[in-house]
Design brief:
This protein is of the alpha+beta class. It contains four helices and six strands. It has a single domain, classed as Nuclear Transport Factor 2, Chain: A (Roll), CATH 3.10.450.
Amino acid sequence: MSIRTADNEALVVREIEEVWNSGGNLDVLDDVVAEDFVYHSPMMDMEGRDEYREMAAEVRDIFSDMEMTVEDVVSADDKVVVRYTAYGTHTGEMMGIEPTDERIEMTGVYFDRIEDGKIQERYDVADELGMFVQLGVVELPEMEE
């Protein structure tokens, strides 16, 4: 693994550990995310570090004890892929859904592109349907055998 690839991996893991764990240090975003950062997910797209900071603060309000575990990290050149598991208790309103105090466990994958030592672009693919099922707001039909 090259030094650059190792640095890219460390950058992405740092963002997860400091923003999503340890009480949520949103100030670290200035060091690890590009000002014109672009974020893509099935639930939303956004542009700009400030908009990402607002979204992170909102998620931390919804899941006040949010923590993420990095399960795997794979990288090549300017790309870093992280498989993660997120945990949290639904203590804040989300999309009109009142707090349920239910504990969730959600898996996901980040596909990040690093440019000039910062995260420039992220694709976040997470099991949001599973989260909504755990919160009791969505029921899945039973499968026939």
